[in-house]
Amino acid sequence: MPGENLSRDEARERAGLVSVDGYEVALDLRSAVGESDREVRTFRSLTTIRFRRTGTGDATFVDLIAPSVTSVTLNGRELDPAAVFDGSRIALDGLQDENVLVVDAQCAYSRTGEGMHRFVDPEDGEVYLYTQYEPADARRVYANFEQPDLKAPYRFEVTAPEAWTVWSNGAGEQGADRVWRFAETAPISTYITCVVAGPYHYVTDTYRRGDLEIPLGAMCRKGLAKHFDADDVFLITKQGFDFFHDNFDYPYPFGKYDQAFVPEYNLGAMENPGMVTFREEYVYRGKVTQAAYERRANTILHEMAHMWFGDLVTMVWWDDLWLKESFADFMGSFSLAEATRFTNSWVTFANNRKAWAYRADQLPSTHPITADIRDLEDAKLNFDGITYAKGAAVLKQLVAYAGREAFLEGARRYFKRHAYGNTALADLLTVLEETSGRDLRAWAKSWLQTSGVNALTPAVTYDAEGRITELAVLQDGEELRPHRAAVGLYRLSPEGRLVRYARAEADVTGPRTAIAELAGQDRPDLVLVNDDDLTYCKIRFDEGSLATLRAHLGDLTDPLARALCWSALWNMTRDGLMPARDFVAIALDFAGRETDIGVLQMVHAWAQSAVTHYAAPSWRAEGGRLLAEGGLRELRLAEPGSEQQLTWARFFAATASSDADFQLLEGLLDGTAKIDGLSVDQELRWALLGPLAAHGRADEARIAAELARDDTATGKRHSVRCLASRPSEAVKAQAWAAVVESERLSNALVEATIAGFVQPSQRALIAPYAPKYFEAIERVWAERSIQIGMHVVRGLFPGLQDSPQTLAATDAWLAGHADAAPALRRLVLEARDDLARALRAQECDAAAG
Which helix (H) or strand (E) holds 198? Predict the structure, then answer.
């Protein structure tokens, strides 16, 4: 891995030396079928790069990760591959003002989701290919200058098996010679080029707006075709195009718009212009809630926003990754709320996306939104909650601070001024200052160039009649930022509802800001700082407000205000300010009244995490019993056939802990038990079987029987997870060896095996693997791809061995491996922080007992 790691300094030097005129890439993918899957598979990659020397010097390099190079020709001069290719780079010297490089190589198909991923469908034996490159894996498929600021046009041609269809960024057609040739692209970066090939099920449509016509396509594996609701995908796509054309005043610039749902995908999706790729889990095989459809719609619109933020205008280097990801994350929720049926998307953003940001921003690896990205390993790890969700929250704050129209006009000028180019922070600030009339340099310094999250707490005083004499907002944190924030006052109505009766919006600055507009108001039952979620902060409560929430959270009528309160209570639990058992009690009291399914699902996840990680060990069993009892109670109370019923069914299955619980799960599986309205489809069957396997109630034969019912790629992943979750020393040893000591498993099956291996009910069983983890991770990081390395280092960290001894072992590894790869150390430091946080929260919970 270290030899593949391009540094920012190297990229900057190379960008100062060369400019790329274009690529011609010819791939022969016929080798993808017809051989034994046990053999190492390669394909021919023939690349022609036309580039100019624009700086001083006559030597540089191109990037290529390949098993072998057949020939290298520079300006007609044959170079010795053995002398110039080191496995990740091809050294070039004797550059001229104008250069033509031809590289003929044998590149490898991937099983890790990086580069050219090859998937064999166990259902029908069909082979499917797709590429995934971000941040720097195009070099696994063709020779290139692998950095975002060396943009160029591309011409791809692909020779494929006869029965296949091939797609790329541009429109393509198959010639008489069975070679697929694609139109030249606009200038784009290497990491967003793309090839998808195979016998995919493909559906078409067209988007029309005035004279603009965009061909639309959507595809998935043939085995998923019966589940593929392409009409809804196209509906969201068209609504998104309407929104972005209305607001960006720059027509979609990349011709066609295909969307491929592909197997074993590492990301949610990837914004390749004209050929967006998504994880196929967005093709739903069973009944799901509207929250699932909202997540898919958000992802569709997030990737579409990238066509402008990221593809048309691209950051110079990964330091400014936020220039595409923060904007796409913000625009996903923004367009979802204003252009689709998911009008409450800001509730999901406040409760779900920002929870990701709050966690990331409190880790030792926290970083400014504009990060210091030294190399590609840094870049890979910075696709995180800060770059995405915090950045999006800060952009929402910017809209409140500068004004909506100023923000959108700034975006319009940004696209027109920098189309097909590369930018940095200063380029965006320039246009936003023009349109808003505000000096944004100080704002950017506080919000974009510093790290950490502020906490905002109300401080209220009253007169003898109970009226507010002063309401102030207290801010803490290392960097005290300017917040455009609203404060809402809520009180219980005679009907028992908790409703807002006063609101004031103000600039919160410094450690204390008085909100003069609220002086004189009657005493509230709840003071909600950051009402309407305008800014990025952790919310705290005064004593009276917290007491109100303990008794009346379910009476809060506004779904966004309710989501903010749930999030704030969870942050207090994580921070050791509220005992885990108190959060569990509030969840059990009020989650059954939660109407927003996405919020309900988050509350379920938080309640489980509270018991697993933050509860005192002596109370865990009791907490687990309470969750299972509450889950079953709400499952039986839920409206038959409703989304709430399905959500509570999954929660009950995940928390089941008693013989009676397991007997009910078994009955639901074999049909001897019924819950009115609950349809036990195949996906729900796996959700019911998983806990039975983890608690020793489903053996290998039972899991095999379920796989026989669902002999599909998805069924295979579920079965692998269930098999690895069984409470047996032999099972755990086999799972550990399959992931840590072998490269046999694909990326998706590595994930599934790790998910099965790590079971909260099996702490003692997996305890012997804690020292093995620390012995193995540096070797794994060095020998495996970065994606698999991340799965192993994050997924197998012994966090369930939540003791000071595990913390000490982590510290000892860090002290003894100061020279380990920085990205590896970052992952271990993050896991250590989660463990230390859990131990602090357990102390808080124990004190409450």
Answer: strand 195-198
799 in Cβ contact with 835 (< 8 Å): yes
Q: Tell me the C-alpha distance between 709 and 698, whole Å.
A: 15
Question: What span, in angstroms and rounded, lies between the C-alpha atoms of 587 and 329?
Answer: 28
Assess whether 303 carries a catalytic annotation: yes
Model confidence pLDDT, tens digit, residues 594-615? 999 999 999 999 999 999 999 9
CA 147 from centre of chain: 22
pLDDT digits (tens, 9 = 90+) for 552-581: 999 999 999 999 999 999 999 999 999 999
Q: Which is the catalytic residue, given 114, 157, 271, 303?
A: 303
Task: Show Cβ contacts of residue 814 under 8 Å, excluding neighbours closer than 6 positions.
Answer: 825, 828, 829, 832
- Spell out a b/e string for 498-535, using b for 16 or more CB atoms within 10 Å of the CB, else e: bbbebebbbebeeeebebeebeebeebbbbbbbbbbbb
Measured distance CA(588)–CA(600) in Å, rounded: 11
Cis previous bond, 153, omega within 30: no
How far is 323 from 315, CA to CA, in rounded Å?
Answer: 6
Q: In angstroms, rounded to a whole number, what is the distance separating the alpha carbons of residues 255 and 244?
A: 15
The three state secondary structure string of 383-405 is CCCHHHHHHHHHHHHHHHHHCHH
Beta strands in 369-493 (DSSP E): 422-423, 455-462, 468-476, 483-492
Rounded distance between C-alpha atoms, residue 90 and residue 101, angstroms: 11
Report the distance separating Cα 508 and Cα 226, nearest Å: 53
Helix, strand, coil percentages in the chain from 3-state DSSP, rounded to 5: 50, 20, 30
Asked if residues 787 and 772 have their Cβ atoms less than 8 Å apart, the reply is: no
Angle of helix 713-725 relative to helix 682-694, nearest 10 degrees? Answer: 20
Give Dmax over CA atoms of the chain in angstroms.
92
Instruction: Give the closest residue to 68 by CA, choosing from 101, 38, 108.
Output: 108
Helices (H), 174-220: none
Tokens matching residue 153 = 């046009």
Is 70 exceeded by the pLDDT of residue 36? no
The 10s digit of each residue's pLDDT in 693-718 is 999 999 999 999 999 999 999 999 99
Q: Read off the pLDDT band of 1 (50, 70, 90).
A: very low
Residue 249 Cα distances to 240, 309, 473, angstroms: 14, 13, 40
Cβ burial, residue 396 (10 Å; 0-12/13-18/19+)? buried
Q: 612 near 839, Cβ under 8 Å?
A: no
Q: pLDDT-derived band of residue 383, with 50, 70 and 90 as boundaries?
A: confident
Helix ranges (H only) for 679-803 are 682-694, 700-709, 713-725, 729-736, 747-757, 763-766, 769-783, 786-795
Percent of the chain with pLDDT over 70: 99
DSSP string, 76-137: TEEE-HHHHB-SSEEEEES--SEEEEEEEEEEEPBSSSSEEEEEE-TTT--EEEEEE-TTT-
Rounded Cα distance between 6 and 89, Å, is 10
For residues 481-487, give the mean pLDDT.
Answer: 95
pLDDT digits (tens, 9 = 90+) for 581-595: 999 999 999 999 999
The number of residues making up the chain comes to 849
621, containing H or E segment: helix 620-637
User: Average per-residue pLDDT in the chain?
Assistant: 96
Shortest CA distance to 43 belongs to which of 35, 54, 32? 32
> Which backbone phi and psi does 125 adopt, to 5 degrees?
80, 0
Angle between helices 391-402 and 441-448 (to 10 degrees): 150
| CA dihedral (615, 621, 625, 631) positive or negative | positive
Beta strands (DSSP E) in 306-450 are: 314-315, 422-423
Element (H, E) at 372: none
